[in-house]
User: What shape does this take?
Amino acid sequence: MLQKVAYVCGPLTELSAELAQVAKTFYERIGDACQEITGVRAFVPHEHFDPLKHPNFTPREVDEAERNQVCKKTSVLIVAPIAPSWGGGIEVEMANQSNVPVIIICKKDKRISRLLKGNPAVKLIIEYSTQDQAILRLKRGIESLMISRKVFF
Assistant: This one.
């Protein structure tokens, strides 16, 4: 049987180089936190499809690969809306259509779309002030969803 993993979703397109690096590091920390809790590292898309490191993938190939990952291989979608994006909502709706629960992890001072927050797949919204606090609260959130049997690894 295929073991499902968490999937980390967050913007990268159109971020400044500095903010993109901060974002990538945060997404990687989330992936590591998932491994600490579940024993399996989360799927972090930029590690597989970063347009700078992997420029040969076509948009269609990226869509097919990530759609397959979200819909068939994901136990929980973790959304980190650190900046405006035109991609994250697609992944959330793919999760919704595939009965994959969603956790949104956002800074306290960031406004997040009500449409995103209201998606039926969203099971938990975690607010944080610092990245360290975010990781700690995320670990607790994943554990609580595992206990309530909303997330299976």
